[in-house]
Amino acid sequence: MIRLLFTIIAGVLLGGIVHLVSVLALPRIASQDAYSRLTPITKLNAVTALPLADPGNTLMPFMDPAFATAICRYDLSGGPIKLAAINDRSAGRKVIELDLMTEDQHADLPEDEDVTAADRLIIDSPGTTGLIVLKALAAEPGLMPQAQASLAASSCKVQTEAPAKQAGPAAKR
User: Fold this and answer.
1) CB count, 10 Å around CB of 130?
2) What are the per-10-residue average pLDDT scores of the chain (173 residues)?
């Protein structure tokens, strides 16, 4: 009886260890992550519209057919990225502009006391490559062309001029 109990405990422990190692190793060895799936169909540093989701054809898991989706695959090694996208009516402005850059690129920006956080949105990227996902809701199927048009008006490109740095509280006089 003790021998059977020891065998069961050893099997459960071995199974737990194998399960834990496989779950922790899976993200490192998986070859079909979102970035590698979208690389062949998207342009670098540009907004690319994804095909509409249907039950037989989805590029990414859990894609909602009520949303038009576009992707900006970026590489910050050539400089910061400026993303301009149509905004909803709740924010008051018509276009959202954000500057995406690495922490080193952000630290190299000159300080400008006249620019506040409301004027410019600067985001530090954790890495030099990544994806920006843009979605537009089509409340009814007939509104899908309008949602796709709003995403088509978005832009994602390398900045040609240096963005102004946000002024912090220490910079004000």
Assistant:
1) 16
2) 94 97 86 85 93 81 89 93 76 75 86 59 90 92 92 89 51 38
How far from the centroid of its chain's Cα atoms is residue 64's Cα?
17
Between the alpha carbon of residue 164 and those of residues 40, 77, 115, 171, the distances in Å are 34, 19, 7, 14
What is the model's pTM? 0.71
Element (H, E) at 104: helix 103-107
Q: Is 37 helix (H, G, I), strand (E, B) or coil?
A: helix
What is the SS3 assignment for 6? helix
